[in-house]
Amino acid sequence: MHSKLGEFIRAHRERTLPDSVGLPGGGRRRTPGLRREELAQLCDVSPTWLTWLEQGREVQASGKMLARLAEVLHLSAAERAYLFSLADRLDPHHDDDGGSAEEALDAIVAAIDAPAYILDRQWDAVAWNPQAERLLAGWLSPSPQSRPNLLRYMFLSAAARELIVDWPERARRLVAEFRADIGRHASEQVLAGLIVELSDASATFAELWTLQDVVGREGGLRRFRHPRRGDLDFNQVTLHLAKRHDLKLVMLLPQT
């Protein structure tokens, strides 16, 4: 994957005209595009580091660095998304489209005739439908002050222990699923802060986190003991969105 990332960056460097980034285009050039040293200077990195990146060596590019590369190389939205996908990094500006993106997520969950919600990388709920709101009223609400976080609800809310059947086992699996889901991103500021917060606030979370357990988010039977509707069984299905791999669509389909 590193080689594909390097090839992609080099190809777009060589097709970026110097005058498009405010540099003189004269002089002898092997290609009409930017020299490696020029791109390195524009991105505030060393030419050696950029050389290694283009050669596919094992160097890590931060989200901030990739965002700067995308700007200098005038990448389209699709090209920018491809760049971050090759680097396995989350675009720090992925929410810049604001309302239109939120409306699209709302439309997805609204079209599902079952409890459904969408989680981001730190497991904040970014969209949910009325069915999910009625089932998970202790977590999801019509006008939340901030994005409801599934882990905060699970470990810091007494309502979760009453609603979720076999809470200890579900809590154990949830932490292992979260570790698997965030992978190499665990050291990022937002995620690291969330882990510290939960570890400080919940001895159970802290103990489960130190176990280093990892399991896939496989779905399957989910059982609830609702205060008004009684015992409810669902089959959970989780899908990643094609254009936003950091988002997960979770559906709770009634058992038939």
TrEMBL record:
GO terms for molecular function: DNA binding. InterPro entries: Cro/C1-type_HTH (IPR001387), Lambda_DNA-bd_dom_sf (IPR010982), MLTR_LBD (IPR041413). Residues 8-80 form the HTH cro/C1-type domain. It comes from the Bacteria. Signal peptide: none annotated. SMART domains: HTH_XRE. This is Helix-turn-helix domain-containing protein. It comes from Rugamonas rivuli. The lineage of its organism: Bacteria, Pseudomonadati, Pseudomonadota, Betaproteobacteria, Burkholderiales.
